[in-house]
Amino acid sequence: MEHRASLLNQLEHMEWARQQYATRPTRRPRLLEYQMLVRDYKEAVLKAGLEVTERAIERLQAKENA
Hints:
The two termini are 20 Å apart. 89% of the residues lie in helices and 0% in strands. By secondary structure, the protein is mostly helical. The chain has helices at residues 2-23, 29-65. The longest helix has 37 residues, at 29-65. α1 (2-23) runs antiparallel to α2 (29-65).
């Protein structure tokens, strides 16, 4: 459960960062574009990790209740 909470926290921070960077003027648009691509990748990895974690939690809870 702690791992799930950590993933959710990281995803929340990613969304906050996306909003901050997307609205910020920049003199280096290519760098910003690269940073946004890296954030998109990280977000996808976190979402995949969250999905696997939630499935594992469900399976473990089902075993407990059986």
